[in-house]
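Running this now, will post back.
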Amino acid sequence: MSIRNARRHANDDAKHLEKDGVPEDEVKRLVEKIQEMTNNYIIKVDKVLELKEKDILTV
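Update: finished.
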């Protein structure tokens, strides 16, 4: 949940950059990079949760 909140805040900041005069294509690349990072962190968290679940079930 907090990963998605961080993504939302980062996207909002990126949109403010566009209003401040940063070219639209730069903002779009930034938003895409933010999404890529979000996806990577979600995958990492899922892997850790899966390992933790296995650990709990084996005890």
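Residues 2-58 form one domain. More later if anyone needs it.
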